[in-house]
Amino acid sequence: MFRPLPHRVPAAISSAASAPAFTGNQAALAAAPQFPHTWVPLATTYELDPDRPTPVSFLGQRYVAYRNNDGEWVVMDDACPHRLAPLSEGRVDRETDRIECAYHGWSFDSSGQCARIPQATDAVAAASLQSTRACVASYPTRVEKSVLFAWLWPEDLLTVVADPAAQPETMLAGVDLDTSTYTRDLPYGWDTLLENIVDPSHIPFAHHGLQGKRTDAIAINMSAPESLGAAGLLFEFGDRTMGMRRSSIGEFRAPFVVAYNGSFEGSPKMFNLTVVCLPTAPGWSRTIIFGGIKPEARVAHAKAGDAEVARQRSRLSVPALQKLGPKPKPSLFAKIFSLLPTWAIHLGSNRFLDSDLAFLHFQEQTLRQRGAPKPASAYFMPAPSDRVIVALRRWLEQYAHVLGPLPPPIQTRAALFDRWTQHTAHCRHCQTAVAGIARWRKRLNVGLVLCLAAASHWAARLLGVACLGGLGLLGLVEQQFRVSDYKHYQT
Ligand code: FES
Ligand SMILES: [Fe+2]
Q: Transmembrane ranges (predicted)?
């Protein structure tokens, strides 16, 4: 789906000398330090609630995203032109198909044009609605493989039509159309996130027990990364994970995507991973990880996969089929995984991201405090697996200057591991699960009261205990949507 340039881009106005001038977020991005101008992946339509204006950020600027009545995704500056209240605190009025500011009720159509100033007389409103100052900047959007992209830069997006690296389809090449996503806002910057995602050597330790084990660690064989210039990096390596040797190719598709393709020694299993990394604000970044197939597409996918395997097998000769053996059955883990609802997969993903969250937050603070002129010079990186970090830091120095002052370190573990703000609040699947928990809590409380009223019967007492157990379980699950510390010394 492609939402082209609105009939007007209200924030772009012309000065007396007719040189283009910009307001709001466009002005900030026009003055921003060097950064590649491409489509920007802000969020995923798989997780966004289409009826709710959701705040999203890029390079320290706030935007609001929602879906209009035509099914198109709209991205605007998240500031009402009246007195700058965030539009993401407002609502989408489905009768008028406008976003309405929660403060004084000004409302705007999808192009950002102000359509109503409730407090103004007809004459004042008629004059004011014509002013560009009453408009909000609204940006072209595209949805590619569930990812919502926006063109946020001051110049026309036609400037990059010939640049494949700037296009969403190039960034997400290899991702299945039906893949589900998991999005998390992380309390460390984009450069720290990229450094972590391109680094295979941390997996056995940082994700011990979640993906492989500490005993998987071996000397990683990594060749010198190949520079693709502004387009990124290519790196090859051999490592071990979950007890299996693995050969992989990693790609940094600058500036936002890291993609891996690999195979395991002596196993038909393949390894594919695509991760989006977005600079949201100083000391903060957003990651979008592509996971399993969306629940609603799993059956069709399994059937298509079976049909493809059957088609390939039908072409083989009998001896070749005998050599191949019977069709492999999915593992128990794969079977269980295929039954899980999205919120349960997201809880697992939360745990995975928690496991390197704290040390990355403080590592970044220390790196900045030491004030090394070049971040990589503050590190001691003798192993071949560190080559990719050196190459990435070189790329950042050359093409993306986004290292602004960091906010102060986060003081409490609860704030550091605040899953609610970092994921749950903006994920419709997890929000639905939390609402379901609230409904069940109400039912169990009613059940408990009824059981107490009939406590003279042994069956009621038994049922009461079951209600109490259910309430305890709901509390434990709900806590996982809110906050959960991660302690490596306990794993
Ligand atoms: S700040 Fe939005 S209507 Fe007043
Ligand atoms: Fe979620």
A: none
